[in-house]
Design a protein that fits this description.
It contains ten helices and five strands. The chain is an alpha+beta fold. The protein has a five-stranded mixed beta sheet with strand order 1-3-2-4-5.
């Protein structure tokens, strides 16, 4: 009688594929000051947020954290539900989305990261943790001193007297920031004439205490697939996204001190900003409640109003 041999290996369809990893420098980053893992880490959160938080907690360092990728790996919820859950987890103090400028010179690029912690922290802790930190400048490489070979002495001949042209004025920080937009994203490359025409608008941003990195990040975030008129698009964003005027301006670092450029972004819409301008990881429009409507029909769980959930999570953080 024939004997059937059973293989202990699972069929290919039953083996889950490995979770996709982001490129080096991107993806999930775990922050310090975490308590040891325990079963009640996310017990105070609603069920959906508990489920998404537990899934993120199990992901390795550097795992892809985009809403689209997370929704593909979480079977219970779609992209809209996952996006709402991430917003609630940001309010609860478990994550922040930031963008960091790495490199130097013409090789600067923006790296997007999601900082995660199973221990909830308030907005003040996140602002201190993500504040720019001084980075020590590299030691200059000293070339060995070489003794120059003796040269024959030549009789000096007076050069004809010519008038040197007046040096061209140095470009302003606003002009340089506009010129750097095209380096950050080629879809918004501006000509010299475009930079001159928009210079006054960019100077208004600098007058409100922001720097070139902030301006470039705000103008280039969330671009459409195709931009018909770069100068028109940049003009529109310079007018519509100008930051608010603050009563005080932070003290700039000493000249020549290199600084790590870190910029937090809104967990809901991706708008960049300083940590103190994004309490709970959300910008001002995303923190405002939606206007009341006359439709009394309750939507599905994934489309419920997040405002009430956010308020409840803030109360939970205040609880002893």
């Amino acid at each position: 009688m024939a004997v059937e041999h059973l293989s202990p290996a699972l069929p290919a369809s039953a083996v889950s594929p490995p979770y996709p990893m982001a490129h080096p420098g991107y993806g999930k980053r775990t922050v310090p000051d975490e308590h040891p893992s325990r079963a009640a880490d996310f017990a105070l959160l609603p069920f959906r947020e508990q489920y998404v938080a537990a899934f993120i907690e199990r992901l390795p360092e550097g795992a892809t954290m985009s809403v689209k990728c997370l929704a593909k790996q979480i079977p219970l919820y779609g992209q809209q539900a996952v996006s709402s859950a991430l917003t609630a987890l940001s309010v609860a103090g478990h994550l922040r989305r930031v963008r960091c400028a790495v490199g130097g010179g013409d090789q600067v690029r923006w790296v997007f990261r999601t900082y995660w912690t199973r221990t909830a922290h308030d907005s003040e802790w996140w602002a201190n943790h993500l504040a720019p930190e001084p980075v020590p400048a590299p030691d200059p490489v000293r070339e060995p001193v070489r003794e120059a070979a003796p040269e024959p002495v030549r009789e000096a001949v007076p050069a004809p007297r010519t008038e040197s042209p007046a040096p061209a004025p140095a470009p302003s920080p606003a002009y340089l920031a506009l010129a750097g937009i095209g380096r950050a994203d080629a879809r918004l490359a501006l000509s010299a004439a475009d930079c001159t025409a928009l210079e006054a608008l960019a100077e208004r941003w600098f007058a409100r205490g922001v720097d070139a990195d902030y301006l470039i990040g705000a103008v280039t975030s969330g671009l459409p697939a195709h931009v018909d008129s770069p100068v028109g698009f940049v003009r529109h964003r310079l007018n519509d996204k100008i930051p608010p005027a603050l009563p005080t301006t932070p003290t700039p670092p000493p000249a020549g001190t290199p600084v790590r450029r870190v910029m937090m972004e809104c967990t809901e819409c991706g708008t960049p900003g300083r940590p103190e301008a994004l309490p709970d990881g959300l910008c001002q429009p995303c923190r405002q409640p939606e206007p009341a409507t006359t439709d009394t029909q309750a939507g599905p769980p994934a489309e419920r109003d997040v405002t009430q959930l956010v308020a409840g999570l803030r109360d939970l953080l205040k609880a002893p």
